[in-house]
Amino acid sequence: MQNDKDTFFIEADRNERAPWTFLTNHTHVLILLAQEPDLRLRDVAIRVGITERAVQRIVAELEAAGALVRERDGRRNHYEVNRDLPLRHPVESHRKIADLLKLGLPDDNS
Questions:
Q1: Pairing between strand 68-73 and 76-81?
Q2: Local structure of 81: helix, strand or coil
Q3: Any bridge partners for residue 86, and if so which?
Q4: CA atoms of 49 and 20, how far apart (whole Å)
Q5: Phi, psi (5° rounding) for residue 11?
Q6: pTM of the prediction?
Q7: Phi/psi of residue 77, nearest 5 degrees
């Protein structure tokens, strides 16, 4: 199933250069896992437009920082975003992950 978000990156691949965005891949991964906590990392990679290996690295970094908790559910993983964690950089450390997620989540999920 392909949506507008997937088309964005397919077009970028055709141009051999991904367009830049204001948010990082870490933010994109967090937003997707907050929206769909049972999403496979392979699907996250496709939607973000990076490799599955890069998503695995980002998830490991987010877990190490306490921003993400992974729970095993049979053969699948379930992810929980720690929305109360402050953002890391001094410029935005007065905000929490919940504030960042509001940029990418529908109002009923934030």
A1: antiparallel
A2: strand
A3: 96
A4: 11
A5: -60, -40
A6: 0.79
A7: -110, 150
CA distance 100 to 3: 23
Kindly report, residue by residue over 41-90, the tens digit of the pLDDT: 999 999 999 999 999 999 999 999 999 999 998 999 999 999 999 999 99
* CA-to-CA separations, 3 to 8, 93, 103, in angstroms, rounded: 9, 34, 19
Expressed in percent and rounded to 5, the helix, strand and coil fractions of the chain are: 45, 15, 40
Whole-number Å distance between alpha carbons of 104 and 95: 15
Encoded tokens for 26: 């870490």
Q: How far is CA 7 from CA 31, 60, 79, in A?
A: 18, 27, 26
